[in-house]
């Protein structure tokens, strides 16, 4: 079977809700990433055989196959098709898996996997709260309710609290982790570690104004963050431990990677950044929901024949602070190798774009640190997780 190689990886800097990217139509924002991947490789755009885009809230401006609309908003020719993927927060990580599987099979040679989410223009939960008559159409069906009696909704907030309690995590531990995430992201920004991966786009505000100013820095960063400030944030649930400060930030953004096989490498005439070494996806308990990266990582290590200490860098999405902390505890991984440039608590979590966003950061971090193997995983709505292991080349 052929190999799958990443030859380009890019992302926009994150934008706050109502902030510097709020005036961008999501198709146009994703189109900018598609253009950037073509520009960075210098390839003939017609060589791209498919575009797979992850997006969670596929409603409003992100409906009607956002992937195809992104292609039509880009410099790619009309002959390039597009399809949209929803595996909740892991949507664009799954897009990477689908793209890799396509080129490994030999069915295609050059595929773009990407993600986009405008959480300003298409608010979170919008697809599940569209108008319905007599409560018909609610996503938790009667059969699901019979299988999970007493569960009216699968809440990620409840799942985060359950994970924290199961792993014996304290609020002080969660607050401390959030503070470290900010400090690492601030340091990475000051040292220019994100510069190579970020695609500059002009600031475009919700009122339609276009300043012409480039957006090149993650807007969610709080450079004046203090541990005391994090500790003082109000609890989301009475009696719980999770606060907005220990949760991922709502974010607008887009990201993507170009994936090819050996035939694609020859056609493009470029050197790969990394090779996709292993891919796993796994379902888990949808009630606790956010624990899935733990068993998924264990399965990935077992199937790949690797040990946790053989992995040089980890990207575990910081949907909530208990997720990476529980993952560290269960896997025994070195915390100094985890999210070395900060994570979603500091930088934002643009839902469907986060999978290829984390992959972009991971691939560039491996290069800068001169390390070999990286592992990416993230919790996903419904109790699922993807795991991807890459090897820097």
UniProtKB/TrEMBL annotation:
Residue ranges of every copy of the Thiolase C-terminal domain listed in the record: 271-392
Residues annotated as domain Thiolase N-terminal: 5-262
Tagged with keyword Transferase: yes
PROSITE patterns linked to this entry: THIOLASE_2 (PS00737)
Any Pfam family: Thiolase_N
CDD domains hit by this protein: thiolase
Keyword Transferase annotated: yes
Domain of life: Bacteria
Keywords for the protein's UniProt record, in alphabetical order: Acyltransferase, Transferase
Transmembrane segments annotated in the record for this chain: none
InterPro entries: Thiolase, Thiolase-like, Thiolase_C, Thiolase_CS, Thiolase_N
UniProt similarity note: Belongs to the thiolase-like superfamily. Thiolase family.
Name the record gives this protein: Acetyl-CoA C-acetyltransferase
Organism: Polaromonas aquatica
């Amino acid at each position: 079977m052929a190999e799958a190689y990443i030859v380009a990886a890019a992302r926009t800097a994150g934008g706050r809700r109502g902030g510097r990217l709020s005036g961008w139509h999501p198709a146009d924002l994703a189109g900018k990433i598609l253009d950037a991947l073509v520009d960075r490789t210098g390839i003939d755009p017609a060589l791209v055989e498919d575009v797979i885009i992850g997006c969670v809230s596929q409603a409003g401006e992100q409906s009607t196959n956002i992937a195809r609309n992104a292609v039509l908003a880009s410099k790619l020719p009309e002959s390039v098709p597009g399809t949209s993927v929803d595996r909740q927060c892991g949507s664009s990580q799954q897009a990477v898996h689908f793209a890799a599987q396509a080129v490994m099979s030999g069915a295609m040679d050059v595929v773009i996997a990407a993600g986009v989410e405008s959480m300003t223009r298409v608010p979170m939960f919008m697809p599940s709260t569209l108008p319905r008559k007599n409560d018909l159409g609610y996503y938790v069906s009667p059969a699901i309710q019979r299988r999970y009696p007493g569960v009216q909704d699968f809440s990620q907030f409840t799942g985060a609290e359950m994970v924290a309690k199961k792993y014996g995590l304290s609020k002080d531990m969660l607050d401390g982790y959030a503070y470290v995430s900010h400090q690492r992201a601030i340091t990475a920004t000051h040292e220019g570690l994100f510069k190579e991966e970020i695609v500059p786009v002009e600031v475009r505000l919700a009122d339609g104004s276009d300043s012409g100013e480039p957006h090149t820095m993650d807007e969610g960063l709080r450079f004046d963050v203090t541990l005391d400030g994090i500790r003082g944030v109000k609890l989301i649930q009475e009696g719980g431990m999770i606060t907005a400060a220990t949760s991922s930030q709502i974010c607008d953004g887009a990201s993507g990677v170009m994936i090819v096989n050996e035939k694609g490498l020859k056609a493009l005439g470029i050197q790969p950044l990394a090779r996709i070494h292993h891919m796993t996806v796994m379902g888990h308990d949808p009630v606790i929901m956010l624990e899935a990266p733990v068993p998924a990582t264990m399965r990935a290590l077992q199937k790949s024949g690797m040990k946790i200490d053989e992995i040089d860098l980890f990207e575990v999405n910081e949907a909530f602070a208990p997720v990476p902390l529980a993952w560290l505890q269960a896997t025994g991984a070195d915390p100094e190798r985890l999210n070395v440039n900060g994570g979603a608590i500091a930088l934002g979590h643009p839902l469907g774009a986060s999978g290829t966003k984390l992959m972009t950061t991971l691939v560039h971090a491996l290069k800068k640190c001169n390390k070999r193997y990286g592992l990416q995983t993230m919790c996903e709505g419904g109790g699922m997780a993807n795991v991807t292991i890459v090897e820097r080349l």
